[in-house]
Amino acid sequence: MANIGRASGDRLGGGAKPRAIVIFVVGFWILDVGNNLLMSPCRAFLSDLSGHSQQKMRNANAFFSFFGGVIA
Description:
The protein is mostly helical. The chain has one domain. Helix content is 79%, strand content 0%.
């Protein structure tokens, strides 16, 4: 991010790099929105795949939550 901030006008010296900070915050926000947009359809798909079996649904939700926590 610092390289992108420097390319957009931040100075190389010490101190805050406001453009790099803004780019980071906006990028993080876009990734967070994308993650939240995909979460509900993925959970619905797991529900469709598990049929009406509570055991399969419980296991699918456990794996989904685990891997969601590991990736995030």
